Amino acid sequence: MAEIYHATATAPVNIAVIKYWGKASTKLNTPTNSSLSVTLSQDDLRTITTASCSASFDSDALWLNGAPHDVSNARSQACFAELRALRKAKEDQDSSLPPLSSYKLHLISENNFPTAAGLASSAAGFAAFVRAIADLYELEETPTQLSRIARQGSGSACRSLFGGYVAWEKGSREDGYDSIAVQVAPESHWPTMRAAVLVISDAKKGVSSTSGMQATVATSTLFPNRANVIVPARMEAMKKAIAEKDFEGFAELTMADSNSFHAVCLDTIPPIFYMNDSSRAAVRVVEEINRCAGKKVAAYTFDAGPNAVIYYDEANEDLILGVLKKATDHVTGWSDKYSRISPKVPDG
Ligand code: PMV
Question: For 21-53, how does the pLDDT look when each residue is reduced to its tens digit (9 = 90+)?
């Protein structure tokens, strides 16, 4: 029987504090603006993927949470092709290496959180996909070099190859070569940062991020100002807030950018609603916590779904989790999950 080679990798979810929304090129999956995220703990929200390959496999295949998933789509194919090309280059240099680049791949992936409910499942999914195959092929590429590949699977996936605070720089090259993720600061730089994830709904989102982005870019009159003026300034301000561990600055920018992202969604024709009444209730609770504290001690953000992620500093944990628990106890279907940001992914 032909030998089976395998490697296993995990990738955590990242939650953007400056959001990616809009594609400059759908083919290359490059963004209209840079973005910045915080990587969450692998203990709570992560994908684990085992990649295997063998001369005996007759097609590429992926199983996600036990169910077969199509890999014939252009996104998955782009990742396979790039990773195989890197492996092939290694094999061409060293003829003693087994020809893994010519074998079909099988991927088995599991998420420990709701898939496609605005919890960045595709980010962790494609990051683990790329990391597992890169490990299987024993590639020496850095996380930033691999981020160029993961980006082609799912934009936000490029940021999940790092722990800590991560920027996806949009780049300016026509071929997308400089549209890559870089670590802004490791988790250890600001180890007291915490995130509470309020799962309001684990239903699949109504409008996929790809079709939502395309509609926003095509129709929103607010969008050009967000992408070209507001976000570039916020990226700089956010990097400074992180460098200075300025929680108030971080919180103001995070909430403003979440609101701006949902505003351009509402400004899309037809309008896109990702937040619901429970999401808006979470906003009010955070506003009330901050009003009572007399300063910003908590920051909400929402991705392409109704679930809330609330960032806070460990020093305020009892206050914030206590109030959130009280405020959400009576709301059915609203569970809480508290995460630390991840120290476990290589710092690149
Ligand atoms: O990477 P995608 O195509 O799933 O898009 C993610 C978009 C947001 O989650 C809403 C924002 C972000 O930067 O992660």
Answer: 999 999 999 999 999 999 988 777 889 999 999
Q: State in Å: Cα 122 to ligand 1 middle.
A: 8
Give the whole-angstrom CA distance, residue 311 versus residue 316.
11
Angle, alpha carbons 159-174-11 (nearest 5°): 15
Say yes or no: CB of residue 283 within 6 Å of ligand 1. Answer: no
pLDDT value at residue 199: 79
17 lines ligand 1 (CB under 6 A): no
| Statement: 193-340 belongs to CATH 3.30.70.890 | yes
Under DSSP, is residue 164 helix (H, G, I), strand (E, B) or coil?
Answer: coil
Q: What is the pTM of this model?
A: 0.93
Distance of CA 282 to the CA centre of its chain: 21
Choose the CATH number for 4-185 among 3.30.230.10, 3.40.50.620, 2.60.120.10, 3.40.50.2300: 3.30.230.10
Question: What tens digit of pLDDT does each residue of 151-201 get?
Answer: 999 999 999 999 999 999 999 999 999 999 999 999 999 999 999 888 776
